[in-house]
Amino acid sequence: MDRIAFPPLAAPLDGEASPDVPPRAVLKGVRWVSLGIVEVGGITIADPLAYVGTPEVPPHNAVVDPALPVGRAQTFGAAPDLPYWPSYCGMSPDARATFLAWLAEGRKAPDIQIGYVFVYLYGLEWRALAERAAADLPAIAQEVRRLLGIYGNTYSFRSYANALLDAVLFLQGETSPLGDEPPVAVDYRVPLSVRGAVGRCVADGRPVPFDLMFLWYLHHETTGLRTAAKRAFPEFRDLCRARYTAKHGDGLVVKPPKGVLAEEFGAASGNFVLTLKSDLPNVARLTAPIKKMAEIAEAATNDLDKYSRLLGRKPEARRTLEAAALLPADIRDAYLGHEAAELRHRLLGAASQGPVLRPLAEVAAVLGIALPDSGRLRKDAAQSMAAALEAVGCGCEPDVRCGSRSPAVGEDVVLFGLPDGYGGQDGLYGVAYKSAVAILTVAAAVVHADTEVSEAEEAHLIGLIEEFLHLAEAERRRLEAHVRRLLATKADLTAARTAIKGAPEEERRRMARFALAAASADGVVAPSEVRMLEKLYKELGIDPADLYGHLHASGAPSRDEPVVVREAEGQERVHAIPAPPTPKPAVGQGVVLDHAFLDRVRDETRQVSGLLRDIFAEDDQQAAPPPPHEEEVCDDGRFAGLDAAHAALLAALVAEECWPRADFEAHCAAHRLLPDGAIETINEWSFDTFDEPLLDEDDDITVNLALLGDAAPVPA
Amino acid sequence: MSKPIKSKDRDAIIQALNAGVVPRLGLHHVQVGRAAEIAAVVRDVERIADEGSAIRFVIGEYGAGKTFFLNLVRLIALEKKLVVVSADLAPDRRLHASSGQARGLYAELMRNLSTRTRPDGGALPSIVERFVSDAHKAAVGAGRSVEDEVHARLAPMMELVSGYDFASVISHYWRASEAGDEGGKADALRWLRGEFGTRTEARQALGVRSIIDDANIYDYLKLMARFVRTAGYGGLLVTLDEMVNLYKLNSKQARDNNYEQILRIVNDVLQGSFGGFGFVFGGTPQFLMDTRRGLYSYEALQSRLAENSFARDGLIDLSGPVVRLQALTPEELYVLLGNIRSVFALGDPAAHLVPDEALTAFMSHCSQTVGEAYFRTPRNTIKAFVNLLSILEQNPGTRWQDLLGSVAVAAEGPEDLDAAAAETTEDDDDLAAFTL
Q: Which of A240, A388, B339, B365 is 20 to 30 A removed from A172 (C-alpha atoms)?
């Protein structure tokens, strides 16, 4: 039912005066009534937005000519038929009456034949484009939109009205606003107004703002919205907006293409055809910006998939927690508002970040999730619980989506605040996270081995999370929640067994290191912990005999460096972990000494050396401590401190340097002394006095005369 | 290290190191680091000398220097006028047994009984004679019979288990020496050394009804502790190395019996019920912590030994009975080599045989030859270094650089130690555990 524009009936438009503004074509003898009251054929019309008067030749199809006869108005539904090309002048009197009644009634009766509406539209079109009444453009645009609202379901009308609206907006430098519905496609082209607005941005070198870009994209010939985008259009739009601005800030900056924007406009009335020209660049053939937008839109559509399916099933679910849980995090808050904050507060309590331990029943009650009577939460229920929690910015541990078992009725779960800008689980909880969980599970099992978990052990386990700096913030928060739960529940090796299974050897060794460090964290490795470690080593496939050496070494004080629980390793590390305390030069390498440590060793050695020197002191030791027997000084006082009998013996002995054993014993007997006891006593005295033994006992007894110095007698 | 070193110490150190064993003398010239641990054992020794008691479990891996440490404790104790008895545990030397192995341990301890004047053992006769001489002199002075004096002095021992027989044997020794009866003296010493196998034999020789046997060696160690104090010494320190031999016992019953003896000792010491008495045990981490066969397998010992044995906040807590020795680090080995160089030079820096860079060059050489074992189990490394210095000393004009390439360092492993422990019993100075 397309119309073909044919030569204008009215005054032809003369040329193009300016590129943007076609020449005015004024109808002579008629006036445009936008505000005010006119009376035609006895019918009073307020603000008719129409031409009234008797035009000079030729007649114009939109002009209400009071000179023409007006019959009786019919009900709108039974309005007389109009020909294919309707016009006021060509109507029957009754049809005129009906048309005037329709105008008077406010141009809104939905059941009137579309021909009448067209006649009215012809006037608007002439006024806006042929006559170029710039001041009326806003009112006309508004009126066309209103008409579209009532009569837009007639394809032909919709098409012409939209074209007119588009042209009006273009002239105004505007576009249709972006609404909650996908915009109506006009001839599957990008509306002129949109191209004009984009062109203006491009010409000015301004970024293309989201709404404009989005309109451009939506109208683009290559764009086909999928169900998710259509069904959840506002969410789709907001998501695209969030991501567009996140990615491109104020908007894409587009380089001006060649060519100027110009488009032919054929009036619905067939009264005129004109070219809307501008000096704006013609962006119609640009594809790069559309591609960029399409990428964003495509991803957004995918992310809305689950959400859209829920809406399809349960349209009333929109703006509930259940639905919000399925929304991408970027826009979730907008669809939950303060309700989310409230829930979050109820769940996490005063500690805004958590982690907090909560009974599963309590959490389920807050979220309105039904619990089974006993046993574990079903997987889908657990999933939606986790999703609902995520919707309000809470993480939950265990979370079946991260590979944990679902919690059982009567258990506690740990809630924690997700980091700002948390964008869902994509790319999280991968191998690195799982290995961290495994390590901590193992460590927790060991810590639990001695019935009580000490504060130091707890702090150590929590502190271990810092070792996993290569994990994302969200992962580390979940890890901490996981550890809290492990600490709160009676974790044992069963939990760790799965983690251990299939771990490569290097991984298992790392588990062992962590477990050791955890066990010795509080300075006490309880035998029960050792027993647990023995079991663990067996599980890990490491020789349990190695355990004791490892434990022993883990008891070593550090060299003022953090304990190394995880050794340096390839690319996944973001944070440098200090080198192991003992440099391990490989065979074939030189020896590199740590000079700071060397200095400490020297210091300590000096200290020890001082301590020992005091003990093994040479001469400066205090004078002989009082011997256990009463002191009797020998006649000449040469051997002060030695009792009389031994002094006398010694006095006899110093006569010779060397005494055969028998002679020595004879001397002892003479002094009523026992030989071995005498040597002991004299040497004891000698040690105290000279710090060296005086008598050397081989087969013969040798007297160290040099020691005595002055005290040595002049050989007889 | 600038203090002059006596040439006697120097020779003892070099000779021992050259043979791959822990020196008996002069350890303080080579000790590296371990200030806290040494201070702790010095306090232990002083406590014993002050009528207190002390116990330490020196725990370290193969090569960490347990034996060195034990020897150092021994020397410190001797210097503080304690009597020290030392032995390595072995399959035939245990704390508790039923076929003579415990008595074997006691006998070994008595053979190795040392005083400051006899640091190499064999001091038992000296102590007995010194006691008897003193008693004799006092008796003469007081106009009493020596017999009475001896018994009066031994009175404090009578209250202890077997105290009467012990006193009788000491009296017997005095009488034999008075009578010039060498056989009688030897019998008394044999009894004291636990070398009598049967009671009958002992009664015939000495007239006593009991002997030192498997069941009562700890009681006799207590008697000996009391006796050495009576004889004028500060107290008795017992050092037992290679405790891992208890761990290696196959029968759980046998292990538990031995651990029960250790528990008795731990209890006596921790309760302070018996003064002038102390123990130092040397063992591997496994011996301590294995919950199936180690000390941790014995419930009553667990809690007493688990406390505070681990470094915390970088500090070593030595309030518990466990001292942990870690393997040497390259830095410590470096200082140790420096100390050995200093021993060679008798403490005179001007007489150093090699410059500092030779030390690192030497370590690099060892590292290339045997890997990191060169500092973790440094016995062979040290031996090679001592050899190198000896050659340089005996061949003036030789350049160390020329010798370095030809230095051979053998790798070593715990197997050596096991073999040594199993085959030779007098291997108590094994420098396998040379670490400071």
A: A240
Measure the CA–CA gap between B91 and B111, rounded to whole angstroms. 18
What single-letter amino acid sits at A209?
P
Tell whether B177 is within 8 A of chain A (Cβ).
yes
CA A511 to chain centre: 27
Q: Which of A452, A520, A530, A695 to mutate to test the interface with B (most CBs of B within 10 A)?
A: A530
pLDDT value of position A400: 79
Nearest to B382 by CA among B407, B349, B414: B407
**Chain-chain contact of A601 with B76 (C-beta, under 8 angstroms):** no
CB-closest option in A456, A602, A616 to B79: A616
Option in A522, A530, A585 nearest B289 (CB) = A530
Q: Which residues of A112-143 are buried (b: 16+ CB within 10 A; e: fewer)?
A: bbbbbbbbbbbbbbbbbbbbbbeebbebbbeb
pLDDT of B144 over the 90 cut: no
B353-394 tens-digit pLDDT: 888 888 888 888 888 887 777 777 788 888 888 888 888 888
- Please indicate whether, in this complex, the C-beta atoms of A611 and B306 are within 8 angstroms of each other: no
CA dist B309 and A557 (Å) reads 11
pLDDT at A290: 92
Terminal Cα distance for chain A, rounded: 155
Contact B87, B198 (CB under 8 A): no
In terms of CA atoms, which chain B residue is nearest residue A679?
A: B126
| Cβ–Cβ gap B132/A683 under 8 Å | no
d(CA A656, CA A636): 19
What is the DSSP-derived secondary structure letter of residue A709?
G
- Say what the ipTM of the complex is: 0.79
pLDDT tier, B236 (very low <50, low <70, confident <90, very high otherwise) = very high
Q: Quick one: which H or E segment has residue A219?
A: helix A210-219
pLDDT for the residue numbered B316 = 60
Within 8 A by CB and 6+ apart from A683, the residues are: A693, A694, A695, B117
Using a 10 angstrom Cβ sphere, with 0-12 exposed, 13-18 middle and 19 or more buried, the burial of residue B420 is middle
Q: Are B309 and A555 a contacting pair at CB < 8 A?
A: yes
Tens digits of residue pLDDT in A324-344 = 778 887 787 777 766 666 777
Q: Measured between alpha carbons, how far is A486 from A498 in angstroms, rounded to an integer?
A: 15
Q: Is the peptide bond before A58 cis (omega within 30 degrees of 0)?
A: yes
Q: Per the structure block, which two tokens stand in for A335?
A: 């669809």
The whole-angstrom separation of Cα A708 and Cα A701 is: 16
Q: Which of residues 375-434 of B touch A (CB under 8 A)?
A: none
In chain B, the residue whose alpha carbon lies closest to the alpha carbon of A674 is B129
The gap from C-alpha A581 to its chain's centroid, in whole angstroms, comes to 35
Beta carbons of B86 and B109 less than 8 angstroms apart? yes
Q: Does B137 touch chain A (CB under 8 A)?
A: yes
Q: Which residue has the higher pLDDT, A354 or A81?
A: A81
Res A636: pLDDT:
55
Does position A570 have pLDDT exceeding 70, yes or no? no
In terms of Cα–Cα distance, which of A271, A304, A307, A38 is closest to A160?
A271
The residue assigned the tokens 């035609």 is A40
Would you say A596 and A661 are in contact if contact means Cβ atoms under 8 Å apart? no
SS3 A257: coil
